[in-house]
User: What shape does this take?
Amino acid sequence: LFFIQAPQAQTRYTSETSLVPEVGVNADAYVGDRIFERMVGTTRECLVPTFSFEKHYLTVEAGKPMCLGSPGDDEYVPSYANDNTRYDGAPGKRNLLLREKKGKYTLKFEKTLLSIKGLSEDEIGKKKVFFPQGGNGHKFVSYLGMSDSIAKFQYGEVDENGLERNKFDSFLDINESKTLVMKGLVIEIDEINTTKISYRIIRDFKL
Assistant: This one.
């Protein structure tokens, strides 16, 4: 499952919550990592090609998603500017159509004669991609290391533009407790040192 900043266009996908890691799952992280992230967003049907292509000022970029605008659509919308055919040189987006015949795939640029033919299933990279919406539903906690027995953590939120805000630090003396409680979130620490933390999430944030 991929994660990517959500585009501004509205869709008819159903909003859902993603927890990374899930409650009850053992996890490891290093200093500076987000050890828990709660995101509200949508999971969309996408193509994440393993190849790059450029012809007649139209492009496909490897590793960048192109997703259906809504369930039932047949046009994939790129998450990047892939059309440089405008007379003024301003970059734009050109949707693509996917067709399959005898196990081979063709990608056709909308309203053009240009197609990319003979693609394999691996090359087109069909997969689900999670798009966070940002706002109050997107929260995280990071591990910032420790000094002596004092471990440092940071809470933060991510807004609709992908910017971190409302951040504050929290400290835990692991000689007294190995349970971090923050805004309803409960994290049980199994092992911790100056570079690494092993833990599991006991409870999600309280909304």
Q: What stands out?
A: The first helix runs from residue 121 to 124. The helical segments are 121-124. The chain has a mean pLDDT of 90.
